[in-house]
Amino acid sequence: MTRVGEPEVGASQAEAQKKAGVLIEALHYIRLYSGNTVVVKIGGAALDEPAMAARVAQDLTLMDLVGINLIVIHGGGPQVSQAMMDAGIVPQFIDGLRVTDDASMEVVRRVLIGSINNSLVARLCESGLEAVGLSGTDAGLIRAEPVTGRAGRNLGRVGRVAGVNTALLAALLKDGYTPVIASVAMNRDGGGALNINADAVAGAIAATMSAAKLIYLTNVEGLYRDFGDSQSLIPQLTLAELAAMSSGISDGMGPKVASVIHALKAGVGKAHILDGRVEHALLLEIFTEKGIGTQVIA
Description:
By secondary structure, the chain is an alpha/beta fold. The protein has helices at 11-33, 44-48, 50-65, 77-86, 102-127, 166-174, 198-208, 239-245, 254-265, 281-287; strands spanning 37-42, 69-74, 93-94, 97-98, 131-135, 142-146, 158-164, 178-182, 184-187, 193-196, 213-218, 236-238, 270-275, 294-297. 42% of the residues lie in helices and 22% in strands.
């Protein structure tokens, strides 16, 4: 029985104590990752939904406030495909990579750099981040070389990362800026711009920047042992286990898996494939014991 003058311990206080417990749990992870670099790749589907994009911006801002050095790479596949169809170009994919002729390349540049990058940077700045929009062409941030599909199939102006200007990224992070990168780069041998898969860009940058974590925000829960069966979600696996199952991965997930393998082999601490549709997925993965999605460890 509560006496006169004593505070009543009710639902509101219990809720407050629960929140305090969450903060205490997060403290360990804040200490662990503060001062470290985390690379986050945001899929185009997450950027297409305003409420989801706003939550991602909030998560990134909190990560920045506790001292995590963020590098953001964004996709834009759905938006590019729609813009191509609006221009009368039929999207085609080989081995999970977009076939990109000259006309398609102009659409890619217009959508990724001129639209998505600008919008994402503005949203992050509104949330409190000192975000800076970049593409791989800026100050030679990404050096690229052309690639072909399996069996020599022609992909057009599609490239892979041949080098990263880590000095530029390090300088921006040191001065408190958050680089936000569109996956377009110049062919290092001349010949104009190349379209690079954003997952591959994220993996290469995480590797060259010795990131503590590489995170992919997608529109699926994570990796499945049996694609399409939600009960077969894999919460954690090792690099060796991922490499062993990579041949059976779908074309859409293939570039992510390949870039995760590359990054972890290069020394990145962990990689995560998360469902960006889950509210505050980034915070749940980084600052709680349970986490969500699929975690890959070396």
